[in-house]
Every structure is written in structure tokens, then in C-alpha cells.
Amino acid sequence: MKTFMDDQFLLNSETAVQLYEKFAKPMPIIDYHCHLDPKAIYENKPFSNLTEVWLYGDHYKWRAMRANGIAEAYVTGGEGVSDYDRFLAYARTVPMAIGNPLYHWSHLELRRLFGIEEIINENNAPAIWEKANKLFEGKGLTPQELVRVSNVRVVCTTDDPADSLDYHIKLMEEDRHGFQVRPSFRPDKALEINRDTFLPWIGRLQEACGYEVTDYKRLLQALKERVAFFHQTGCLLSDHAIDTVMHADATEEQAAAIYAKALRGEAVSLEEEAQYKTFTLVYLSRLYADHGWAMQLHIHAHRNNNSAMMRSLGPDTGYDSINTGQLAGPLVRLLDSMEANGGLPRTILYSLNASDNDVLASIIGSFQDGTIPGKIQLGSAWWFNDTIDGMLAQMKSLANMGLISRFVGMLTDSRSFLSYPRHEYFRRILCNLLGDWVESGQVPADMELLGTIVEGICYSNAEQYFRFGSEAASINVQAVVAQ
Ligand SMILES: O=C(O)[C@@H](O)[C@H](O)[C@H](O)C(=O)CO
Questions:
Q1: Residue 140 banded pLDDT, cuts 50, 70, 90
Q2: β-strand 376-378 against 346-351: which pairing, if any?
Q3: pLDDT tens-digit map of 97-124
Q4: Is pLDDT of 483 > 80?
């Protein structure tokens, strides 16, 4: 029987061990999609204890605690509940989470970032708390240190087009934290015309661009200006939550009429919503292509299902699930419309529904245009699929129908500064998959070729694909500050 989480954790052959130790492990990390707070990175305030850094923002852990019968006050905090109480509640939950990636991630995080090797449970929780918190004494443990010690080269945060990006600009001006912090352009609120967030967001956009967005032409102009501002501030990716894939051909005049209806507070039909979203997304995709950005489409999430908890805690608090819905037809038409409008940008398609993997892996092959390797990507296993089974399923779909060698690899997609061991987890799973292929005679034991492929998936594919290291990606701080 293998020892739990030893040096060959998840590596079941000598080939897998070699691929991981020699090629995967040394690679730095590019976290091209996460939800870390740029303000927290800039202010760099030391964390006060293990609960703050581990439990304050991580809804993966919150879901597990609720499923374990832990009262909400001990999950997201409440009257008279200390951080130590919350830590003990999570320590009670970890042993019950075997089979869930949280069980592995939690142990990897304590081992890699705190040097704590204990198997987490309620009995040794006090000792773990004491050991970990020693690192928070004195000058303490800060966000920037956790990013640096995790060998992260690039962090791409998720930002609204109306955001000032002040903290990104301050980080650029200082530029002594040892890694890149780049915004990502996430215009969901500009697209969700039927949600109650739409009109308030138009107000925020008007403040950001300094003029009234009284008609659709001005909306498109404002979005174009915000894309330019984001680009100047180092943005090289956009990101969209496409919970339901819609496509309906529309002219600019039709989209403008729908926008005007929404501004008047009139109901917009589902067909009109599809027309508005199609025209606006196609417009945005051309802007992305013109700026050399990558476009991420995060498909089939079902968000904020619990109305009472949405009112109490707000969005992204662990009450989401996997969505279903029509995919192939509307997505192919959407991508084809983007292609017809001057060219698809670099595009990454993720679905929260793993049963979509093969559909997406086949669709990306319809839009590779030979300009760059892996231009259209099947995105890494995302959120509920960020598991051993989910990662293997995504990589096998991509390998079976596309080129896994051109995959831009893993991201953390996290709100916690402790989540970087998720890359180790992914890299071990990747190396074991390739190792299995070699050991079973499906792939020659060409360690030079396999090593190059592993290094590409772990780091260099992403660096080349997103162009983080290129001249074009350099950030003109003076131009941004002068604005
Ligand atoms: O980007 C998304 O839509 C999701 O990643 C969402 O933010 C979710 O809350 C998450 O963080 C899953 O890891």
C-alpha cells in the first residue's frame, strides 16, 4: 500500500515520476484566471491566522462544511464565533471530505506552504493551528509572499470594465513584488440585459467613461474605450460567464432598439436578449482580436441557486451548480459569426458540464486557423470539474480530438492565496496520464519529446499563447498614469 501523499503522490510509474520531477515540478506558474483581489495584493497586509487565509473567501470549503452539518456561523462567520472556532469546524470536515479534491488540496497547502505534514483532523487541529500561526507572528505572512513562494510569474485577476484598475496601476508603478498582476476584462454585466444588475451597471460605466451611455452606439464606444484602457493597463484576456449559450442574428439597429427598451425599463424577450448578446459579443470579440487578447467563455454554470443565501451572503458563496442546455448549435453559430466579423480571437472554451467536453473538443477543431498553435482551446477542468476525474476527462477529450500538447494548462480560479498547490495537483495528474501511455506502450518513451510537451502544458504554452513575456505585452505605466 502506498504511503499517503508521499513524493510519488498520484504518480504510479517510474516514467510518471521522471516526467513530474524533471519537467513539470520546476516550471513556474501562470495563473491566467483567478479571483484574487488586486487590492489585497497591493496592500499586502499580513494575514492574522490560518482561518483568514484559508476560509475567508473559499466557497469550495464553505460547501463542504455545510454538507458536513456545520452551522453557517462557523462557515462564513457569525456573532460570537472566533476564527479558531471556524478552523476547528473545518478540521472536523476535512476527514469527512475524502474523495473530494479539498481533502488533497488542504493537505498539500499545509505541507507546501506551512511545512505541516499532519493528517488533518479534530484531534490534532489545535497543534496545527499553533504551528501554522507561528508563521503569522512577527512580520507575518502576506499575499505577495504566498504568490512568490508558489513560484507564480503571472496573476490575471477578474475585473469589471467599469473598474478603475487603480491597484493594478499602483502595482505596476511599484513593480517590486516579483510577479505580473494583470487585469482580465469581464463584461458580464454589459451582456446580462435581463438582470437587475444591468441598469445600475450602465450607471457605473457612465462614471468610468465620463459620459452618458444613452444609446447603443455610445455603449459600444464606451466598451471600446474600456478595452483600450484595460489593454494599456496590461490586460491580455477577456472572460465571459455564458451560463446559457444564445445566438440570434441581429443588426446593430435591432440591438440598439433592444438596448433602448432596457433603458426604458421595458421587458426584453428571450429572443431579444439573444439578439442583443449575439451582436454585442461579436462586436467585443473583434475588439479582442484587434488587441491580440484571448477570449475565455465559461459556459453552463447555474449560479446563486439559493435565493435566501443570495440575499444573505451575495453571489459566489457556494450556492452554484452545473447547468445543462443547448450547446453545439448556438455556440457554433456564435463562433462562426465572430469569425465572419473579422476573425476569432484566441479563444478558450470551458464548460462546467463535463458531458460537454467531447462536444467542445470537436468544435474547437472547426475554428483552428493555423495562425498559432492551439488558437482555439478546450479550457482546463473548471470548478466542479477541478477533480482527478474531471481533469483526466478534459485532457482525454482534448487528446482524443485535438492536441493536448498545445494545451495552455491549469489555472487556480481561486479567491484564496493558498490555492497554488492546485497546479502541483494538476501536474501530477498530467504526468501520470502521459506515464501510463508510455508504460502501456501507447506512446514511445521519448523523454525529450514528452518533457517538452509537459513543460509546454505546465508553463511555456501559456506564456506564448497569452504573450505575457512578449514586447506587445509590455505595460506602458506612464501612459496609463497620465490619463
Ligand atoms: O469565473 C467564474 O465564473 C467562476 O470561477 C466563479 O467565479 C466561481 O465562483 C469560482 O470561483 C469557481 O472556482
A1: confident
A2: parallel
A3: 999 999 999 999 999 999 999 999 999 9
A4: no
Cα-Cα-Cα-Cα dihedral of 309, 313, 317, 318, to 10°?
-20
- Which triple of cell numbers denotes residue 74? 462557523
Residue 152 bridge partners (DSSP): 29
Per-residue pLDDT at 406 exceeds 70: yes
The candidate with the shortest Cα–Cα distance to 20, out of 33, 11, 32, 31, is 11
Name the residue at shortest CA distance from atom 8 of ligand 1: 316
The number of the ligand 1 atom at minimal distance from the alpha carbon of 158 is 1
Residue carrying the nine cell digits 462567520: 77
- The CA-atom distances, in angstroms, between 157 and each of 41, 319, 413 are 10, 22, 9
- Block residue for cell numbers 478546450: 378
Question: Has residue 368 got a pLDDT over 90?
Answer: yes
**413: Cβ below 6 Å to ligand 1?**
yes
Which ligand 1 atom is nearest residue 298's CA? 3
Choice from 300, 413, 418 to test ligand 1 binding pocket (greatest atom count within 8 A of CB): 413
Ligand 1, from 316, 349, 385: best to mutate by most atoms within 8 Å of Cβ? Answer: 316
Percent of the chain with pLDDT over 70: 97
Phi first, then psi, for residue 67 (nearest 5°) are: -65, -20
